[in-house]
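Appendix B, Record 12. Input sequence as logged:
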Amino acid sequence: MLDKVKPRAASVIPTTRVTITPPKFGRAKVRIVGTAPYIQNRFSSDNRDRMYAAQKEGSGAKRTRKAKAPKDFEKIYKASMHVSQKGWIGIPASALRNAMIDACRLTEMDMVRAKMCIKIIAQGLDAENLEPLVEIKGAPRMHVERVKVGMSSTDLASRALFEKWEATFEIEWDDDVFKAQDIVNLLARAGWQVGIGAGRPLSKMSGGTGKGTFEVDMKG
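Logged structural output:
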């Protein structure tokens, strides 16, 4: 005679209540002062238009070798600057934010968390591509230097150089993750160890050329 099989009791999975608190944001005004020249290297509309035309033409189009037109260094220099809709020159807010995120490599802060918790408050927008900017104080001049193009060739680049410069802007952060002193310390690390613009210490293309560093003005 077969034994009767008793039905198993349904297993109960304990549930944990998750509490999400309202976001708390800190906000502060900071002033940075350049400790080395800052070189702007904006991707110009001329370069964009040439790339657009080449990609629209496609790889199957007939290529003809054209004579190189004379290089207009003055035009290229002016196109390298980030000019706002109101006419002032600015630093991309993303450059400052990315420098702070990169500086997290030297701390215990996770870079992904930092991406979600730091915001540079824009003071205006680039007149052409609407990129958020903060105003830079300083006088630019044309700077022409040799640059590497690819692995084996070189070219001359004409760009805007700010020998003495500064900027004052606001930073907003998640106050559950960072405190005000953390933000100041992270910005100071970004200025000394990462930098902004062409030739910065943490350049993607080289080991840097001693450009684009800054310090946080604690008196301002």
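The helical segments are 45-57, 73-79, 93-103, 111-117, 180-194.
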